[in-house]
Amino acid sequence: MAARDFLARSPKEEESNAAVREAVTLGLKNAAISGTVVAVPTLVGCQVLPWAKANLNYTAQALIISAACIAGFFITADKAILRNARQNTIGKMDKST
User: Fold this and answer.
1) The whole model's pTM is what?
2) DSSP string covering 19-69, please?
């Protein structure tokens, strides 16, 4: 662990960490939004619809909501990372010409 203190970080590494931090932040925001958007109709539907009331227990409801949150997080984070990678590639091409 002490050997890591002597290592200097490159500027590209710091840019990469900032890009990952941005992707995680955007992913968490979208996960909260998608979880809320899916939770309301799921919970209301399980109270109102006879089929949902009979067939969707608490575990099924939690799985539906968490699947939406997870999908929202990973899709948004992936898009943000790809956007940053694309910008870095375009920036390198502009510098070389």
Assistant:
1) 0.74
2) HHHHHHHHHHHHHHHHHHHHHHHHHHHHHH-HHHHHH--HHHHHHHHHHHH
